[in-house]
Design brief:
Low-confidence stretches: none
CATH architecture: 3-Layer(aba) Sandwich
CATH class: Alpha Beta
Helix content: 25-40%
Order of helices and strands: HHEHHHEHEHEH
Number of domains: 1
Bound molecules: 3-iodo-tyrosine
Largest sheet: 4 strands, antiparallel
CATH superfamily: NADH Oxidase
Strand content: 5-15%
Strand order of the largest sheet: 1-2-4-3
Length: 229
């Protein structure tokens, strides 16, 4: 039980510098702000039909900065975002990914997995990897760049990636969370050091005008939430 006479969390010690916190003020009641955000994010869909319409580098930089503002274990920020618009490199990534995917669809995937993927009509054709103007390859750091320890890496990189997807969507851009498996080829093609582990490959750009997406539904609130009041 918290003590009535101790309204504050204890002040931080002098050797742990703190600064005043500046909360975000939505300028409207929280329920309105929450609803407005929900109405935006709920329209995000993973798309596979990308147009080659260009996206300025600065947009990608800001999306990555949004991702980089994520919380992480002991603030180690155990991530690297490699943004590729170079056509030659995108082609290399496509060819290598398609090679892995052909293996996946013809050999590696179980019957059940292939069955679960049917509604998405996915296949080894990954032409979007060349068409989308940008590929953001997310790497998880196994060590900090100076060899230090990292914590809760999967949680941290997952949160940052979710923020990246939301930031791209907010900017009117489409994304695809692509997980070619195995992803080791990304380290080689992009010349990444040993302590960076490929995590996710995210094409970013505009959807084609005739883009369609699988007719799938998100679960309703009562299936994803439990309230204990
Ligand atoms: N990586 C493959 C297969 C795939 C797996 C899952 I789980 C998906 O949600 C979608 C696709 C591919 O990209 O085709």
């Amino acid at each position: 039980m918290p003590e009535e006479s101790a309204p504050h969390y204890p002040p931080p010690p002098d050797d742990a510098p703190h600064v005043p916190y500046a909360p975000h003020d939505p300028g409207m009641p929280s329920v309105e702000a929450a609803r407005a955000f929900y109405e935006v994010v709920r329209t995000r869909r993973t798309v596979r039909m990308f147009s080659d319409r260009p996206v300025p580098r600065e947009t990608i930089e800001l999306i990555i900065r949004a991702a980089g503002s994520a919380p992480s274990g002991a603030n180690k920020q155990p991530w690297r975002f490699v943004a590729v618009s170079n056509a030659e490199i995108k082609r290399k990534i496509r060819l290598a990914a398609e090679e892995e995917e052909r293996e996946f669809y013809t050999r590696r995937a179980s019957e059940r997995w292939l069955d679960d993927l049917k509604p998405f009509a996915t296949n080894p054709d990954k032409r979007f990897l060349e068409i989308a103007p940008w590929l953001i390859v997310v790497f998880a750091l196994k060590k900090t760049d100076d060899g230090g320890q990292v914590y809760y890496v999967n949680e941290s990189v997952g949160i940052a990636t979710g923020m990246l997807l939301a930031a791209a969507h907010h900017a009117g851009l489409a994304t695809l969370t692509h997980t070619p498996s195995p992803m080791k080829f990304l380290s080689e093609v992009l010349h990444r050091p040993e302590h960076e582990k490929p995590y996710l490959l995210i094409p970013v750009g505009y959807a084609t005008e005739d883009c369609v997406v699988p007719a799938i539904e998100r679960k309703p609130l009562d299936e994803i939430a439990v309230f204990i009041e």
